[in-house]
Amino acid sequence: MTLKRTSHSCFNSESRPKSGRINLPVAPNCNIQCNYCNRKFDCLNENRPEVISKVLSPQQALYHLEKAMTLSQNIAVVGITGPGDPFANPDETMETLRLVRKKYPEMALCISTNGLDLLPYIDELARLQVSHVTITINAIDPKIGAEIYSWVRYNKKMYRDVVAAKLLINKQLESLTKLKEAGVTAKVNSTIIPGINDIHVITVASKVAELGADILQCFPFYNTKEIVFENLTEPSAEMVQEIQDVTSKFIPQMKHYVLSNADETMRLKLAKSSALPAKTVEYRPYIAVSSMEGIMINQHLGEAERFLIYGMNDTGKCILVSARKAPQAGGGEQRWKELAETLKDCQTVLVSGVGNSPKKVLNSHGIKVFVLEGVIKEIVGGIFSGQDLQELIKRSQIHTGSSQCSGTGKKCG
Q1: 145-182 pLDDT tens trace
Q2: Can you tell me the distance from the alpha carbon of 26 to that of 17, in angstroms, rounded to the nearest whole number?
Q3: β-strand 296-297 against 157-160: which pairing, if any?
Q4: Does residue 248 come out as left (phi exceeding 0), alpha (psi in the -120 to 50 range) or beta?
Q5: pTM of full prediction above 0.85
Q6: Which of 77, 137, 292, 295 has the fewest C-beta atoms lying within 10 Å of its C-beta?
Q7: Which pLDDT belongs to residue 52?
Q8: 226 dihedral zone (left: phi>0; alpha: psi -120 to 50; beta)
């Protein structure tokens, strides 16, 4: 599979209606600190300012992508993003790429990074047929770089000032060279920071073009609160245009950026995806509840004749999906295997009591069993929204007393 640049939405604005893109945020940590970056927000190189991402595990990211594909058939490009740097989180990043490539062999993959820790992964990126890699290079002069970066963390050691900038720049340029040797399309981002690197960006463009970079995107610096550059003025549209015109003499320019048409809807679904079990291979979007009247979690597992199945709708609201009949009492371990099959798309079952044998069988089938009491929608909604389950259990015990099994155990067989 090789996706031509002319059909890629990141390179050709005319392909946008045919080739949408979606970002998968799987990288929480970063290995550098830019003076224009506030860690409360996503990396400003790739995302709109003041938008905070949920972070997904690789399996959650694949689930999120699958849901996006049902909303928008034109998704042809998957980007691996922060809010940190993908290669400060290499295990999560590479596993996500492998999962997406296996599930969607024709999907174009791209990734954005500061380039510090990129080098060891370039060969596998090429084997995975990653469409292109973006490196944000704001300076090639360490003295200018020292004004842009507060620190760099490399091999568990912290660097600052010119030493940090020199290390970062060397790794960026080395990675750019190796990307081209491996046959991977390379895009460079440069952030235009007035009074810091606005003129120097032209030198950056000349150098990356010399090393074989395929395209350059010049981003205007966005001023946000609580950053070192808080008192700097954002570049004017005229300055950005002038820099793009001059740098275009060295390297083609990217002047547009667009996500899939389904992206705004999918932002709402991130909470739902991030609430799934982080390491579950088989996706389980539901929660099962044992209840006598359908309002409270107040029934022992062995006494349940049916289970209420809850999920989340597209707006993140907890909803009742269905009710499922429980297996007949008796039968020993086989009964609980049948229940595991009945609840195979459920991540969790909530009960007011449970015996050791059924709990062990359900756990072995990937279904967590939690003993607690309380209002169903409050607790299930809390789980889906990412609240700490142990805190929910404690809260339920405060309101209803001990939730340990108090039954005879006769119906656990």
Answers
A1: 999 999 999 999 999 999 999 999 999 999 999 999 99
A2: 26
A3: unpaired
A4: alpha
A5: no
A6: 295
A7: 41
A8: left
Does one domain contain both 81 and 187?
yes
Strands, E, within 193-234: which ranges?
Answer: 215-220
- Of 149, 114, 148, 39, the C-alpha closest to 83 is 39
Which structural domain, as residue segments, surrounds residue 144? 5-265
Collapsing DSSP to helix, strand or coil, 123 comes out as helix
Model pLDDT for residues 89-106, shown as the tens digit of each residue? 999 999 999 999 999 999
Per-residue model confidence as pLDDT tens digits over 98-141: 999 999 999 999 999 999 999 999 999 999 999 999 999 999 99
Distance (Å, whole) CA 332 – CA 302: 11
Classified as helix, coil or strand, 296 is: strand
Residues 6 or more apart whose CB falls under 8 angstroms from that of 241 comprise: none
Q: 293 and 148 in one domain?
A: no
**What per-residue confidence (pLDDT) applies to 228?**
87
Smallest CA-to-CA distance from 252 within 304, 188, 299 is with 188
- The rounded distance, in Å, linking the Cα atoms of 12 and 86 is 24
What are the E-state strand segments in 132-214? 132-136, 149-154, 157-160, 185-192
Q: Is 264 exposed, middle or buried (0-12, 13-18, 19+ CB in 10 A)?
A: exposed
User: CA distances (Å), 176 to each of 109, 115, 207, in order?
Assistant: 17, 8, 11
Contacts of 351 (CB under 8 A, 6+ apart): 289, 290, 297, 299, 300, 301, 304, 369, 370, 371
Does one domain contain both 247 and 202? yes
Spatial CA neighbour of 162 closest among 136, 176, 134, 143: 143
Q: Assess contact for 384 and 404: CB atoms under 8 A.
A: no
